[in-house]
Amino acid sequence: MKKYLLWMSVAAFLAGCAGQTEKGEFKIEGHFTNLPLGPVVLEELTLDNLKVVDSTSVKDASGKFTLKGMVPEQGLYRIRFDNGKFILLSLDAGDMKLEGDVNNLDALKVSGSEATSELQQFLQDISKQSIALTEEMRKVDSLHGAKVPDSVFQPQLTAIQKKEKDFEQEFFNMAEKTKNPANAVFAISQVRNPEEIISHKQIITGLTTRFPKNILVKSMTDKIAELEKNNQLSNGDAAGGGDEEATAVKVGMEAPDFTLPDPNGKMISLKSMRGKYVLLDFWASWCGPCREENPNVVKAYQQFKNKNFTVLGVSLDKTKDQWLAAIAKDGLTWNHVSDLKFWDSSVVPLYGINAIPTNFLIDPQGKVIASNLRGDELIAKLKAVLK
């Protein structure tokens, strides 16, 4: 089940491109209420990983910070706070000011950067539609799980599929009208349906014409053309990857640590499981595809639990009773954690999750060695690493 937007998939981008503002120095001044004490990090979003550009530390309640550096061309960046929340930027040279409440970043005030202002307004508009669409999809998933008659289920499924397609059109509209190439690529890269991308090929071609020297645009268009030519473009490959590319965490990266409560309120951290192979499994009781995949995870757990392997389930549920009932009904006898905040869970932006089920296989040193393993693929991978 998809969760549309609210953040970007880091692996979808090659940051740094020819923008409207010449390359040079930038300065970002932030002033936020409810800003947690601790590090504030500015990261460039690259094809392979996150690159730290600058960082500072908030040591008092003033809520102020300053970040500086050089930008070669307009690119896609993010400011990450110590609580896992972040702000997306379309960064040019020059001075930018950001003001707001860390607990309500949808109301962020931007000055000094038209590109970032446009990006943030787009995010706000799309997120409202996203929330409504996700809720409707959840209801349709629930009908499927309840095994209602097809005469009831199919019309609603058809209706939600049309709304999903209409929603995707908003991203193409943004790419077509924006004067900022970074924002155009951001919009296109959020479309998870490759058939939709191919059907809007004239917009992709238009980006190349409008921004002929833009590295970011060229990277995206070349990758799409290569995948199309080799017949490798599969669901979720909008900007050069498979399911793995739909998340911020990729194979080869260290899995970001987090701490969440289990059903009894005990705080469990991912790092506490170092020394074992861990399947980090993002799911929810309301997610039909998740529940359908659970028997495969149970099978893998039972087969390998005595071979230095375990599972950590991270639920995007909202209701504790439903979460616990699903755990019991599906026989999920491993550790489970959740802050019961639905898509507002703190781990969602940390891992860039935009669909569930999603999983990551982590080695004993904490490195991600595979992602989105399903069914027999999970068993095969575990057999290979747990010799």
TrEMBL record:
Compartment(s) of residence: Cell envelope
tRNA-binding as UniProt keyword: no
Keyword annotations of the record: Cytochrome c-type biogenesis, Disulfide bond, Redox-active center
Boundaries of every Thioredoxin domain copy: 249-387
Domain of life: Bacteria
Gene Ontology cellular component terms for the protein in this record: cell envelope
Gene3D superfamilies in the cross-refs: Glutaredoxin (3.40.30.10)
Gene Ontology biological-process annotations: cytochrome complex assembly
One Pfam family named in its UniProt record: AhpC-TSA
Gene Ontology molecular functions: antioxidant activity; oxidoreductase activity
Protein name, entry field: AhpC/TSA family protein
